[in-house]
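re: that chain from earlier
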Amino acid sequence: MRRRTEQGTAIVEFSWLAILLLVPLVYIVLGVLDTQRTAFAATTAARSATRAFVTSPDEASAPARARAAARLAFADQGLDQAPLDLRLHCTPQPSNCLSPGSVVFAEVRSSVRLPLFPAALGHQAPAVAVDASHQSPYGTFREDRP
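^ sequence. v structure.
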């Protein structure tokens, strides 16, 4: 009877162990990177939206400029098709946002679908919610814009 030695099996065991550990690690890293990219986009979108709103020539064009700035911030991160929910409001007079002493608030909400999630498992892929907010003062010593 011939005895089998374990010579050469260490490389096989190491290879299987590396595959079993690296595949989930790569998946987690991809998910974290996508989430971080969306978080950067949401933060930049909120900041850009309030700045675009405050620098608008009039209050009628301000919301459209803010939405365009937010969408551009998402496009800058390569998230052209990502969901984007932008909510704008101001204090102390919600009806007159471009008056001296006003502060414009922007809240951006989005979500990140987990990467490489197969469509065969359902249309509702798991997602991570991302949100950001920013406020910009209009300024006390500026003229009131209609």
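Residues 29 and 35 are 10 Å apart (CA to CA).
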